[in-house]
Design goal:
By secondary structure, the chain is an alpha/beta fold. The protein is built from 15 helices and 22 strands. Strand 6 and strand 7 form a beta hairpin. Helix 11 crosses helix 15.
Length: about 475
């Protein structure tokens, strides 16, 4: 019999029936995976709600090592809960009860109760018991926070019809989470997917529709017909390689050409088939290096290569604007997630205790957690009054020195090194001045004025949430 247990119960802002329905939607399993753990679904059999529903995953074990886990969901009780058990994997035994408990007409409790037994009997319990308990505590704290937040954000618009939303970049850093957030909220997602590989992952059906898309070719308007919204997130990675003339041109064309083609396809549709809103990625880099100046959406635009790129990027949406479509330019800041981006690249150095202040350390970082960025995109989709540029950054940007010290503190590592500008220029080339040392104190005035609630307005709680260090 299992000799260890773990239980976590949290209040949820919906009924037990709605809580169960959220968990039953395709995509919920992946939506709940913590960003500090890479879980890959390799096989799925059956359909949730009809036992047995089996999922095989590759999941972290220790350090870089991974293990295979086969689990089976069963005992489905709509509005009450379900269970899953390990059929094979790292535990000697594992039974997980997901319980949805009524708490008044519009509330409930989510309770996760796990009974498990470690391998190697008393030896496994003695050496691994504390580690496993701490890992479960971090994982399920994250899962409960995400569940409650997603339900709250979707619940604000529960009386609104669900939308059909086309997304480019849906397999990228932001698009992956956005697609899962939308589908678990009951929306329909069409993924416009480029590249030569398979369109759809072969193992796991998240209920989204995959459509092949060449960013450099004219988009058939029929692809977007009937969509309520288009969210355009695709673009070349500016940090991949040095900025040669060819790289510069690639950065510009990867943003302007697809954006214009999408805008033209939207505009070409008859009014009753045309998407009502077009959200197109841009960046806070449009303001240039501005020191301590507070930058709202009304601030003058800046100068420099990245600012110029963002200007023509936003201008490429004009065919949709001319057709009367609501167009929003998402001026995205530094997106924080351990899965990649700036934070993902810094983590190895910080974990090794060699985190460093960059240049003077006084340059402002307009950061935002990926969790809040997804919520802000949803907020914009649902609010017809929001139009034009929107700063997608947390309300409390910090200087680089503060960011460095805070990340070191969250990880429990020293961060006292310093990389001066000449070293950064030698390591990264022109991107050092344009991005790493540029100061953009961007404030999300439009989001705040339209009632968006940030879950992570301050840096340290955001990092603790994203890294499982709460």
């Amino acid at each position: 019999m299992p000799n260890e247990t773990f239980t976590l119960r949290s209040a949820m802002p919906v009924s037990a029936d709605e809580l169960y329905a959220w968990h039953a939607r395709p995509g919920a399993f992946l939506r709940l995976n913590p960003p500090w753990e890479t879980v890959e679904v390799t096989k799925a059999e059956g359909a949730f709600g009809i036992a047995p529903y089996r999922v095989t995953v590759r999941t972290p074990l220790v350090g870089p090592f991974k293990t295979r886990l086969l689990s089976e969901a069963y005992d489905f009780r709509p509005g009450e809960g379900f269970r899953d058990r390990q059929l094979s994997g790292p535990f000697a035994e594992w039974v997980h009860s997901h319980r949805m408990i009524p708490n008044g007409p519009d509330g409930s409790f989510l309770e996760d109760h796990i009974e498990y037994r470690l391998p190697l009997g008393p030896i496994g319990a003695a050496f691994g018991g504390g580690l496993v308990h701490d890992r479960l505590a971090a994982m399920f704290a994250y899962r409960h926070v995400v569940t409650a937040s997603d339900l709250r954000r979707h619940g604000m618009y529960r009386d609104r019809p669900r939308m059909k939303i086309a997304i480019t970049g849906s397999r990228g850093l932001v698009g992956t989470d956005l697609a899962l957030f939308l589908t678990t909220g009951g929306h329909s997602v069409v993924r416009l997917v480029s590249g030569s590989g398979p369109l759809r992952p072969p193992a796991y059906d998240d209920s989204t529709r995959y459509v092949g898309w060449n960013p450099r070719e004219t988009v058939a308007p029929s692809v977007l017909a009937g969509c309520d919204a288009v969210v355009h997130l695709a673009g070349d990675n500016i940090a991949a390689g040095r900025w040669t003339s060819a790289k510069r041109q690639q950065i510009i064309e990867s943003r302007t050409v697809p954006t214009r083609l999408l805008a033209e396809a939207i505009a070409a549709l008859p009014g009753d088939q045309r998407p009502k809103v077009f959200l197109s990625a841009s960046a806070v880099g449009i303001y240039g290096n501005r020191g301590d100046e507070v930058l709202t959406e009304e601030a003058a635009l800046g100068s420099g290569f990245l600012a110029d790129v963002c200007k023509v990027w936003e201008e490429a949406t004009m065919p949709a604007v001319a057709a009367g479509v609501r167009v929003v330019d998402l001026r995205i800041g530094v997106v924080l997630t351990p899965r990649g981006g700036a934070l993902g690249k810094q983590l190895p150095a910080f974990r090794a205790g060699v985190g460093a202040v960059l240049g003077p350390g006084t340059q402002w970082i307009p950061w935002i957690s990926v969790h809040d960025l997804i919520g802000a995109i949803h907020h914009i989709l649902m609010n017809e009054s929001i139009i034009g540029p929107v700063n997608m950054a947390a309300p409390n940007p910090v200087p680089n020195r503060t960011f460095t010290k805070t990340l070191g503190r969250v990880l429990g590592r020293p961060a006292f090194f310093w990389l001066p500008r000449p070293i950064l220029k030698a390591l990264f080339g022109e991107i050092a001045d344009a991005a790493l040392l540029a100061s953009m104190r961007a404030i999300p005035t439009k989001l705040l004025n339209t009632g968006f609630r940030f879950d992570h307005p301050d840096l340290e709680p955001a990092l603790r949430f994203l890294l499982g260090r709460a």
